[in-house]
Amino acid sequence: MCRNSPSQADVKTFQALKEAPKAENYPHVYRWYKHIASYQSEFSSLPGDSSKEYTAYGPETTELATNVAKAPEKAPAADDDDDDVDLFGSDDEEEDAEAARIREERLAEYKKKKEGKVKPAAKSIVTLDVKPWDDETDMKELEASVRSIEQDGLVWGAGKLVPLGYGINKLQINLVVEDEKVSIDELQEKIAEFEDYVQSSDVAAMQKL
């Protein structure tokens, strides 16, 4: 080539080749051959002396054309024998199998621990205001009645009397409930059944534990 452009040297060398070079054997020459082939319609107009033979363009070109033209096809590598005796593949397969076994064991162990771990029950602390009918209501009996309600997931806490006015006090009592076991609405319905003492009840406060 003349600098970076095709020339008569490329044309003569191209024409000296009986067939395209094998890409697997001569990748660079094959790339050159395909490039020059794209100029076939312009061969006569390319720069250089078209009267010269390809051998006149230097030993490198001569050697290149001669070697490519005369070189026998490269014999395929003896892949069959290599495929039969894989010196490294077996080790890799064993390592992969061992890694997979260890991974499966760890996953199984993690799953077992996760299944065996008991999730803490969701709980709430609640403050109830229980209001009596009047100032003559026996507040001790009222509180005793409320505390008599027993249920799984229900724990009564401290209670106190809080003045409402006109000599009337309400019972303000704390309790802890497991959310999945105790319904506050149902609990209030049970408290309302002590109708001799209880006028109504309200949730004064509630928060998750």
Within the largest sheet, what's the order of strands? Answer: 2-3-1-4
- The helix-and-strand class reads alpha+beta
- How far is the N terminus from the C terminus? 85 Å
Whole-number mean pLDDT: 82
H and E string: HHHHHEHEEHE
Instruction: Give the overall silhouette.
Output: rod-shaped
Instruction: Report the helical percentage.
Output: 40-55%
Q: Stretches where pLDDT falls below 50 for ≥5 residues?
A: none
Cα radius of gyration in angstroms: 49 Å
Strand content: 15-25%
Give an overview in words:
- It is a single chain.
- The two termini are 85 Å apart.
- Helix content is 40%, strand content 21%.
- The chain is of the alpha+beta class and 209 residues long.
- It contains 7 helices and 4 strands, in the order αααααβαββαβ.
- A hairpin with a 2-residue loop joins β2 (154-165) and β3.
- The chain has a 4-stranded antiparallel sheet, covered by helices on one side.
Secondary-structure blueprint of this entry?
Blueprint: H1 8-16, H2 27-37, H3 59-70, H4 79-84, H5 89-116, E1 123-132, H6 139-147, E2 154-165, E3 168-178, H7 184-192, E4 198-208
Antiparallel strand pairs: 1-3, 1-4, 2-3
Provide a short characterization of the protein structure.
The protein is built from 7 helices and 4 strands, in the order αααααβαββαβ.
Keywords:
alpha+beta, elongation factor, 209 residues, Transl_elong_EF1B_B/D_CS, EF1B_bsu/dsu_GNE, Elongation factor 1-beta, translation elongation factor activity
